[in-house]
Amino acid sequence: MIEITVRRDLLPRLFDLKKADIKNALFRVTLKTTDQTASFAAKLIGKETKTGYRAIVRGMKVKLPKKGSPAPRGEINARTGDFIPLAGSRTRVRYIEKVPKNYKEKRTQRRYQTLAVKFFGRNSYTQIPGAFVAQLIGGNQRKIQEEKKRVKQSGGKVIGRRHKAILMRRGKGRLPLRELFTNQPDMALYLLKYEAAIKTYAQQTLDDKLNHEIEFRNIRQVKSRLK
Q1: I need a surface site. Which of 51, 84, 132, 205 has the fewest CB within 10 A?
Q2: pLDDT tens digits along 4-37
Q3: What does the alpha-carbon distance between residue 169 and residue 187 come to, in Å, rounded to a whole number?
């Protein structure tokens, strides 16, 4: 586990700020550092394992600091056996057109996917019958539904972050669907391997963020006095 918090030897640099500003500064610095360090760790692991960045981020357990805490602390952790989305692996998608068995008109054809995945540690691709790749929309579902109503006639784009997912139908019907996951690569092992590099990056980022936050709040205090 990698803990991110402001060291005690850096706290005297904040004593010139107001009490409320000190709490806010500590929270903002720890929050931004935790977020950037998690991204750095995911890119570092993904580069070696050739796994997608977003899949690794979803596989890690990132605990963000709590606002209002006197000593905010962030954590980045992973356990052996934790699952990550299979969509992070390399894939090969081929499309075939055929007439479904239950179609009465034989002229009607539908397009199907045949999906092969290169699992971690293997040199060849493995075909997964019944699986397919789709782009899912994430984000605030209420806002997405409101946006869909607004752009229904205009034909504009719907807000929300899209991410790739490998899905499979649970039964014979179109719904429900389930996303496929894998427990390889071992996130805990690689997080332990790069622990020193990640901690060094976290400390450098935290120092830079702290300097920026102190400068920003000092300038704001000076402007408030001049008014």
Answers
A1: 132
A2: 888 887 777 777 777 778 888 888 889 999 999 9
A3: 28
User: Which pair of tokens denotes residue 47?
Assistant: 């580069």
Q: What is the pLDDT of residue 205?
A: 92
Helix (H), strand (E), coil (C) string for the chain: CEEECCCHHHHHHHCCCCHHHHHHHHHHHHHHHHHHHHHHHHHHHHHHHCCCHHHHHHHCEEECCCCCCCCCCEEEECCCCCCEEHHHCEEEEEEEEECCCCCCCCCCCEEEEEEEEECCCCCCCEECCCEEEEEEEECCHHHHHHHHHHCCCCCCCCCCEEEEEEEEECCCCCCCEEECEECCCCHHHHHHHCHHHHHHHHHHHHHHHHHHHHHHHHHHHHHHHHC
pLDDT of amino acid 40: 92
Here the tokens at position 83 are 């699952």
